[in-house]
Design a protein that fits this description.
CATH topology of the largest domain: Quinone Oxidoreductase, Chain A, domain 1
Structural class: alpha/beta
CATH class of the largest domain: Alpha Beta
Protein name: Quinone oxidoreductase
GO molecular function: mRNA 3'-UTR AU-rich region binding; NADPH binding; quinone reductase (NADPH) activity
Largest sheet: 7 strands, mixed
Order of helices and strands: EEEHEEEEHHEHEHEHEHEEHHEHE
CATH architecture of the largest domain: Alpha-Beta Complex
Keywords: NADP, Oxidoreductase
Helix content: 25-40%
Number of domains: 2
Organism: Sutcliffiella cohnii
Strand content: 25-35%
Low-confidence stretches: none
GO cellular component, one term: cytosol
């Protein structure tokens, strides 16, 4: 089969399209013929070496949409089942292996292309909004990187819940209309959002802020977080760590919560199935949609990475196996 293999850290040109063996089934695993996979910013960071040491060679990719090719005789999955999954050894490949706990059936009415936009970003977004942020209708919330995959899903989920005031931030206001179409009431840049949030809330601040950027954005978020407010930190796409002092939280009764879908997949995979069922239904019923910025053939994975790194896109970038 064909796959994208990486033998060293570096720019997008280290992604090698080559022949590899089809992976063999292990215990409680299924083999999936991939139709589409998505490119997530975590792939960029891993390719560059920003996520620790690499056990070369390896294949990038967090999620996949495809068809079960092989499963154990006692499995709840059968050959031909349409699924989304989180493969155990990357998804930039024609065939992938995944643990049964990280495989979820999708209905016939949900296309593979549409399904491929959702596994990582929709499950993560749902858990962030409902379990970690515990957002309520009357909240004012801020969603950083609102035009990205997770951000645009969070905006739509919050809108579905009727959240009082949804504020999105973007690096470039050219994305303002796109984010507002998703359901945001206001859109600001990373440079101005703290002042704007305080102004629109009459100095009270936002109740919940979702931060996947970190760096200076974290400290600016604390400047406009309300009393008893929650800062949800789930990434650092800026490449810089965010920081805060204990005095930023104890006297104001505010709290900072961290969350990682990768950690949850590894240590608490049983938490994902109920959430996957809900978001699959939302996508199948067209209550949530993620714009597809562009679809690249698997052999053009390097070009897909270059587009994601440029940040000059809206929605999700996909690879077709």
């Amino acid at each position: 089969m064909k796959a994208i293999v990486q033998h060293e850290f570096g720019d997008a040109d280290v992604l090698l399209y080559t022949d590899v063996e089809i992976p063999k089934l292990g215990e409680n695993e299924v083999l999936i013929k991939a139709e589409y996979t998505s490119v997530n910013y975590a792939d960029i960071k891993k390719r560059r070496g920003n996520k620790g040491k690499g056990n070369f060679p390896f294949t990038l990719g967090l999620d996949v949409a495809g068809v079960v090719e092989e499963a154990p005789s006692d499995s709840k999955y059968r050959k031909g089942d349409r699924v989304i999954a989180f493969p155990k050894a990357g998804s930039y490949a024609e065939y992938v292996i995944a643990n049964e706990q990280l495989v979820f059936k999708i209905p016939d009415r949900l296309s593979f292309e549409k399904a491929a936009t959702m596994p990582t970003v929709s499950i993560l977004s749902y858990m962030l909004l409902h379990e970690i942020g515990q957002v309520s209708e009357n909240d004012v919330i801020v969603i950083h990187s609102a035009a990205g995959g997770v951000g645009s899903t969070l905006v739509q989920l919050a809108s579905l819940e009727g959240v009082k005031h949804i504020i999105g931030t973007v690096g470039d206001l050219e994305k303002e209309n796109y984010v507002k179409q998703l359901g945001a009431h206001s859109v600001y840049t990373y440079e101005t959002f703290a002042c704007e949030v305080l102004q629109v809330t009459k100095e009270k601040g936002a109740n919940v802020i979702f931060d996947s950027v970190a760096g200076d954005v974290t400290s600016k978020s604390l400047e406009c977080l309300s009393l008893y407010g929650t800062l949800v930190q789930f990434g650092n796409s800026s490449g810089k760590a965010g920081s805060f002092k204990t005095s930023d939280v104890h006297s104001s009764c505010r709290n900072v919560k961290g969350f990682s879908l990768g950690t949850t997949r590894k240590y608490a995979p049983e938490r994902l199935a109920p959430v996957a069922e809900k978001v699959i239904q939302l996508f199948a019923e067209n209550k949530i949609n993620l714009k597809i910025a562009e679809v690249f053939p698997l052999c053009k994975a390097a070009d897909a990475h270059k587009l994601v790194e440029s940040r000059q896109y809206e929605g999700k970038v996909l690879l077709k196996s």
